[in-house]
Hints:
Elements: E1 7-11, E2 14-16, E3 22-24, E4 28-34, E5 44-47, E6 54-58, E7 62-70, E8 75-83, H1 103-109, H2 117-120, H3 124-136, H4 140-148, H5 152-165, E9 172-175, E10 180-183, H6 190-203
Antiparallel strand pairs: 1-6, 2-3, 4-5, 4-7, 7-8, 9-10
Helix pairs in contact: 3-6, 5-6
Amino acid sequence: MEGFPMRAWNITIYLEDDKGNNVEANIFEKAKYELHPTFESRAIQTFKKPPFKCSETGWGEFDMKITLTVMHKGGDHTLNHDLNFQSERYEARHQIIIRNPKPELIERLKETGPVNEVEARGKGADASKKRSRKAGNVDMEKLAEGLQRLTEDDLLQVVQMVHDNKTAETYTKNDVENGEFHVDLYTLPDTLVKMLWDFTTSKTDI
């Protein structure tokens, strides 16, 4: 578009193992990207081999949906991703929950770290409740204090995590003029609170 610089960008998808390393996302059969409508015939793109790389050129930032189809009938999982150019390179972490994975999928998941097979094999509802209670037990005041001690680069990752994992109930306010981002922690989903807690405790003492 006239007056705006064109930027080349690409997105790749990886899994994170229990040591924090990026590994091949080999549990997915395909990844479908839903880009901005202005991409016209390229607005919906599907890739069937890791790392499911989507490469494009454009001038604007936008929110997109990425639908990951898990192998062995593990279902579709849709992620909301905020494409922006605040950093030359950045990572967005997402957590997906696979209900009642088949044995073949469990074996594939074990390649990234330990798997709780009792929860994985048929106790999806109970496991979900346990995760909810654990996230609900996060000390929100300590989390808020820890967030304030993060570096500017770490805070950019936090903003990205909130953008990518928020729900309709989440309250956020982006004050561009003053360079501030506001979020009500109590309106965040439990999974996102747990992600923020894990990230913050890995960066600073709480």
